[in-house]
């Protein structure tokens, strides 16, 4: 098992920057194209717990089916949002990095350096 894992979108400049920073740091790294290999509901729950984040905080709106899925509806439960993320991984914000010191949504991209520093 790798020390670090990145939920990566190769089409995203921010995600590519963070991946390169991790590679340049020489960490033991697993790269997961989270759209090709979507996280399960259980993995999303674990990720949100490690991030200390509610599901709405991990939702991506731009260039996704977010609006078409009605994910801004305030009556949607956390369970419904997590299920939507598992079914439509494009609505998961990226990149998410998991490491020995915790997990971070690396937005802005320079956040990765804080994670690498300790």
From TrEMBL:
Domain of life assignment: Bacteria
The protein's Enzyme Commission number: 1.20.4.1
Pfam name, any one: ArsC
Protein's name in the database: Arsenate reductase
UniProt catalytic activity: [glutaredoxin]-dithiol + arsenate + glutathione + H(+) = glutathionyl-S-S-[glutaredoxin] + arsenite + H2O
Key words, A-Z: Arsenical resistance, Oxidoreductase
Protein's organism: Paracoccus lichenicola
Gene3D superfamilies, per database record: Glutaredoxin
InterPro entries xref list: Arsenate_reductase (IPR006659), Arsenate_reductase-like (IPR006660), Thioredoxin-like_sf (IPR036249)
Protein family membership: Belongs to the ArsC family.
GO molecular function: arsenate reductase (glutaredoxin) activity
